[in-house]
Amino acid sequence: MSLFGSSGLGLPRLKPLSSKRSHVVSVLDIGSSKVVCMIARLTPREESEILPNRTHSIEIIGLGHQRSRGVKSGVISDLDAVESVVRLAVDAAERMAGLTVDSLIVNISAGRLTSDVYTASIDLGGQEVVASDLRKVLVAASQQSLRHDRAVLHSLPTGFSLDGEQGIRDPLSMYGDLLGVDMHVVTAERAALKNIELCVNRAHLSVEGLVATPYASGLAALVDDEVELGCAAIDMGGGTTTISVFAEGKLVHTDAIGIGGHHVTTDLARGLSTRIEDAERLKVVHGSAIASAADERDLISVPPIGEDDRDQPTQVPRALVTRIVRARLEETLELIRDRIQKSGFSPIVGKRVVLTGGASQLTGLPETARRILARNVRIGRPMGVSGLPTAAKGPAFSTAVGLLIYPQVADMETHAGQGGLLSALGGGSGRIARMGQWLKESF
């Protein structure tokens, strides 16, 4: 299935999950440091106080992950390399699950992710709001975002207004003259999406849906109170750091910067004159964002770059490693702080920040983030998932788990002229009733 078919409207849309039956969902997280394929069984669950917005419980039945090749700062730089890594990861997950996969939900960090809010309103003439009015106002807002060079990844209604009164959660059946909606739209460059799809197609697989990385990692790592009260999830990956802001149960803003954990590694490789893989090991074993009193005394052995066996490792104080690591992490966190400030969502984020992604595991990072962001910081791990091996329970696997959660919230989205909420509105009275239910739950 092509992303950019004859309709010209863009991306494939996920079919909504049935709340009555189990589904097998396959996802692919293509990152700068690793490529992860997860296959999970989603089983309908009873409503509960723990993660109340989840309609299904998730059990991992297949997992494959490979060191990434051919991806730089979230952007594909070598199609062949990415294709072979995708094949290996999917193959390992298929063998573990005992089934074959033909389509996957895939994440996207590249393509200069952009977050915009569009507002639209329609005249009701003093009449009652019916489903067709909702459809009309949602389409009007969505269509403002259509551009030939960018594709819409997510479009989420964040709130309705009636005759200028903001903050209406469910306008259905209310009376008024003017119905308005605010629509949060996340877009990416079409070329970046085409390249992702091309890689997946070359591995004889198809893309079932595309999800922005910040949205996925936020879905996996945030608890419901954080999503409701306002919180930022910061996913620190190998090549990119992404930001998502949630409030009142919805994604309200996303952003991405092209700096990640790999930049810390290359800084170490340059500063200590050692190979990239040796710098990575030094970062993981000795890297810290906080200096300690013993750092000047503790000596670390740094392998030389040359091939000559007679070259002796050099000894450097641990303090040098800490200085290099800390400088890059502080720069990254300051950039994030400035981006949140500039976005205008700083008051919504309030005092809550959750760090996810592989680079968030560096020693001392939460303390440094607390100081620079001036907010409460915790490390977010994927929640509400069974069957994950211990090695995959850390923050590095948040995006992949978020992709598994995404189908449960995908029907909250609106897409101009296709799928999602709009087609649900077009059906019979049962669907309209479900629409009313959805509005009640979502707004």
UniProtKB/TrEMBL annotation:
Pfam families: FtsA, SHS2_FTSA. It is found in: Cell membrane. CDD domains: ASKHA_NBD_FtsA. Residues 25-221 form the SHS2 domain. Self-interacts. Interacts with FtsZ. HAMAP family: FtsA (MF_02033). Belongs to the FtsA/MreB family. One of its GO terms (biological process) is cell division. It comes from the Bacteria. It is a peripheral membrane protein. Signal peptide: none annotated. One of its GO terms (molecular function) is hydrolase activity. Cell division protein that is involved in the assembly of the Z ring. May serve as a membrane anchor for the Z ring. This is Cell division protein FtsA. SMART domains: FtsA (SM00842). Keywords: Cell cycle, Cell division, Cell membrane, Hydrolase, Membrane.
